[in-house]
Amino acid sequence: MNFRLLIIDDEKNIREGLAESLNMDGYDVVCAADGDEGWERFCSGDIDLVISDLKMPGLGGDELMRRILAQAPGFPVIILTGHGSVESAVAAMRDGAWDFLTKPVELDHLSLIVKRALENRELVFQHRRMVEELERQKQFKSIIGNSRGIRENFDIMNRAAPSKASILITGESGVGKELVANAIHELSPRKDKPLVKVHCAALSSTLLESELFGHEKGAFTGAISRRRGRFELASGGTLFLDEIGEIDQNIQIKLLRVLQEKNFERVGGEQTVETDVRILTATNRDLKAEIEKGNFREDLYFRLNVVNIHVPPLRERKDDIPVLAAAFMKEFAHENGKTIEGIHEKARSLFYAYDWPGNIRELRNCMESAVVMCRSSIITVDDLPPALRNKDGEEWISIRLGSSMNECEKIIIRDTLSHNRGNKSKTAETLEIGRKTLIRKLSEYELDIQEEQ
Question: 354 Cβ partners below 8 Å, 6+ apart?
Answer without folding.
Answer: 387, 388, 398
